[in-house]
Amino acid sequence: MANLKKKCPECGTFLSINVTGDLYPGCKEREEACCPRCNNVVYSRMTSGFIIKVSEITEDEFNNDNDYD
After folding, report:
1. Coil, helix or strand at residue 3
2. Across-strand partners of 1?
3. What is the pLDDT of residue 10?
4. What backbone torsions phi and psi does residue 13 show, to the nearest 5 degrees?
5. Which end of the chain has less neighbouring CB within 10 Å, N or C?
6. Judging by DSSP bridges, how do beta strands 14-34 and 2-7 pair with one another?
7. Distance between CA atoms of 16 and 55, rounded to whole angstroms?
8. d(C-alpha 3, C-alpha 30), whole Å
9. pLDDT digits over 16-57, tens only?
10. DSSP label at 68?
11. How would DSSP label each residue in 12-61?
12. Residues 6+ apart with CB under 8 A from 55
């Protein structure tokens, strides 16, 4: 559904955040994505019914706009 790229503000790791599944906005649960290196929360959203997968990417992948929305 959504592909995001973020740089962890805590450790500087380049990250790919993939959000998939049926999105139900406005629910009461907060879903969080954490950096795999330092466990800092890098993304969160109030919703339910989806899966967040976070993985490290290279700086070149981070700077390449062709891979993401």
Report:
1. strand
2. none
3. 95
4. -70, 135
5. C
6. antiparallel
7. 5
8. 18
9. 998 887 666 666 677 889 999 999 999 987 766 678 889 999
10. -
11. --EEEEEEEEEEEEEEEEEEEEE-TTT--EEEEEEEEEEEEEEEE--HHH
12. 15, 16, 18, 36
**Tokens of residue 53, six digits:** 């997968």
Q: How far apart are CA 56 and CA 45, in angstroms?
A: 20
- Side-chain half-sphere CA neighbours of 49 within 13 A: 10
Q: For the chain, what is the largest distance between any 2 Cα atoms, rounded to a whole number of angstroms?
A: 37
Paired tokens of 13: 């790791």
Tokens of 52: 């967040």
Taking the complete model, does pTM exceed 0.85, yes or no? no
Contact (CB, 8 A) for 16 and 57 = yes
Structure tokens at 69: 């929305």
Token pair 């891979």: residue: 67
